[in-house]
Structures are given as structure tokens and as C-alpha cells.
Amino acid sequence: MARLLQDPSKLHPSEWYTANRMQRASTESQKSRSECMIAESWRLVDEIEKTTQKTQSDVNKKLEQRREEIKFWKQELDNKLEQIVHETDILLTFKNRLERALEGCKEPLVIAQKCLLYRQRRVGIDLVHDEVEQELLKEAEVIQGVIALLERTLEQTNEQIRRNRSEKYNLDMDLKDKFTALTIDDYCASLTNDTPHIIYADNAMKLEGNFVSLEDWIDFSNINVEKADMQRNNSLALKALINSILSQTANDMHKQCEMVNNAFRNRVKEVKDAKHKLETLLAMVMNETASQEKNIAALKKAIADKEGPVKVAQTRLEARNHRPNVELCYDTVHSSLMSEVQEITKNIQRQDALAQAETELKGLSRRQLSLEEEIKVKENTLYIDEVLCMQMRESVCINIY
């Protein structure tokens, strides 16, 4: 009966108490572990929060520093860009001055060459390689040298302008990139944990191959600044050189122009003096010609005047030769007639002065023609030098551009 009252599936009360104790102990242990875990979690959350805030604060500070650094280099690049643009604009003005100076050389060179060409029309003894021609040749040489120098300087200026524009392009590109980078970093600095539309970007952690080091970044802009400074300094030196060249070449051309003009004035004076002397000689020759013509006329008259007496004397002798017989006497009359005829004949024969006078007259005529031709030569030279050349040279204007 006792076996029937005992159910083999039922546990002993002691086991029940033991099981309850174990449940309590297990629960309390679990609770303790959970409480520790909660405490550790809060500690970890607090620690992560502080670390996150500190890291984010450090990133914000570095981002602000980076923005200031970009602003600094952007300002440097802006300054260099302004300087290089300013120098390029000034160089364009200097280029215009060089072009006007080159244009200004054309007329003086053409005039010098025309003067040389005109003076080839001189004739006779006046076609001489005189001081005027020497100075004209030197003037043409000086102007051609100035043109060559100005052309080389203009090429150098064009090349410097090209280099300046190349550096301006580099600065523009660098500034454009700096502006973009600053805009991006300004946007990044404006972001907060509460900013809408912030997202997870897993791919953002990947470093692409086109990243450069901070040193390379600084070197890149620094090189652009240094190159801009170098081209600016080159531009300053070139401007000083151009000023010097324009001043010196204008002075050289002006000095040589005055040398030519002085040579022309001196030469015109010499030719006028020579012409005046020739005209004086011509007047003298013409006076002498008139005197010689009068002399020849007097000689001819004197000869003509002797024809009557000689005819009378000879007629008398002829008549007395017919005296008869003893009357044909060589008396004093006959002797005197003979002497008269001989004397008159001798005097007539001595009139070779007439031939000599006529020879001298021919010589005076030749001399007159020669002097008149030489005066025409001088008049031609004066027309060329004083009218064609000197009047044309009055239009020469040499300026310091």
C-alpha cells in the first residue's frame, strides 16, 4: 500500500529547496553580471562619447587650420596673380612703345636713303664722297642698327609677355583648385552631428592613387609663387632695359641727325662760297673778254689805218720808178719812200699781237663756258642739298617713345 502512495516522478522536498536556492543564486549572479555589464557599457559609452567629441574637436581644429592654410596660400597666389597681371599690362604698354619707336624709325631711314639717292645726281667735280655723304651713310647705319635692336627687344618683350601669361594660367589654375578646396572645407566645417542629409560613405576611406603629400601640396604652390616672382623680376628688369634702349636709341638717332644737318649746312655754305667765287671769276672773265674784244677791234683798226699810207708810199715808188734816164735817181725822196714802205710793212707785220689777242679771246671764251658750266654744277648741287634734301629733312621727328 505504501508503494502505491509513492509516485516515482515526484522529487524530494529537499531537492525542491535546493533547486530554488540554485535559481536564486543563478539569477542573482546573472543580475550581478548584467549590472556590471550595464555599468561597463555606460562607462564605455561615456568614454566613446568623450573620445568621439575630442576626436571630432581635433578634426574641427585641424579643419580650421587647414582652411586658414588654404586661405594663406590663396592670398599669396592672389597677390602674385595681381602682380603678374599688372606687370603684363605694363609690358603691353612697353610693347606698344617699342612698336611705335620702330614705326618712327621708318621715315628717318627712308629720308636718309633718299638723300643718298638724290645726291647721286650731283655731276662733275661735285660728285664727291664728302662729309655729308659720310654722315648720311652713318645715319642709315645707325638707324638700321636701332631697328635691329628694337626688333630684338620687341621679340624679348613678346616672349616675356608669353611667360607672364603662362604663369598667370598656372596661378589661375592653382587658385581655382584652392577655391574649390576651400569651398569643400568650408562645407565640411559647417557640418554638425545634427546636419540633415549626412550619410554613411564607406568608400570614403579608400585612398586613391592621386593623393599627394602635404609637402608636395606646399611645394606646388610655393613653386608657382617663386616662378611668378621670377617672371615679375624679369619683367621689371626688361622694363628698365626698354626704357634705357628707347632713350639711348633716340639720343643716338637725334645726335646723328644733327651731325647730318650740320654737315649739310656746312656743305651748302661751302658750295655757295665756291659758286660766289666762280661768279666773281666769271664776271672778271667777261670783263676781260670785253676788254680783249676792244683790243682786237683797236688792233684791226690800227692795221686798217695803215693801208692808206702804205698804198700812197708804194704808189709813189711805183710812179717814180718810171722817171726817165738819169732822172731815175736814188734820191732822198726815193730813199725816204723806201724807208716809209719798209717801216709801215714792218709795223704791219708786227701786228701778230692781233693773232695772240684773238687766241686769248678764245681762251677767255672757253674759260667763260667752263665757269658757266661749273656754276650750273654748283646750282645743281645746291638744289639737291638745300632744296631736295634739307627741306625734306625738316620733317624728320625723333621722339623718345
Describe this entry's structure for a reader.
With 401 residues, this protein is mostly helical. It folds into 2 domains: 38-190 and 217-266, Ferritin, CATH 1.20.1260; 282-391, no CATH class. Helix content is 84%, strand content 0%. It has 7 helices and no strands. The protein has helices at residues 2-5, 13-118, 131-190, 214-305, 307-320, 332-349, 352-393. It starts with a helix and ends in an 8-residue tail after the last helix. The model has no long low-confidence stretch (mean pLDDT 88).
Brief sketch in words of this structure:
The protein has helices spanning 2-5, 13-118, 131-190, 214-305, 307-320, 332-349, 352-393.
Strand content: under 5%
CATH 2nd-level architecture of the largest domain: Up-down Bundle
The helix fraction, in percent, is: over 70%
Q: What is the tally of beta strands? A: 0
> What is the count of helical runs?
7
| Biggest beta-sheet profile | none
CATH-assigned fold name of the largest domain = Ferritin
Which segments are poorly predicted (pLDDT under 50) over 5 or more consecutive residues? Answer: none
Kindly report the average pLDDT value.
88
Rg measurement, Å:
63 Å
Sketch the topology as an H/E string, one letter per element.
HHHHHHH
Set down the secondary structure blueprint.
Elements: H1 2-5, H2 13-118, H3 131-190, H4 214-305, H5 307-320, H6 332-349, H7 352-393
Helix pairs in contact: 2-3, 2-4, 2-7, 3-4, 4-7, 5-6
Salient structural properties:
single chain, 401 residues, mainly alpha, Ferritin, 2 domains, 7 helices, cytoplasm
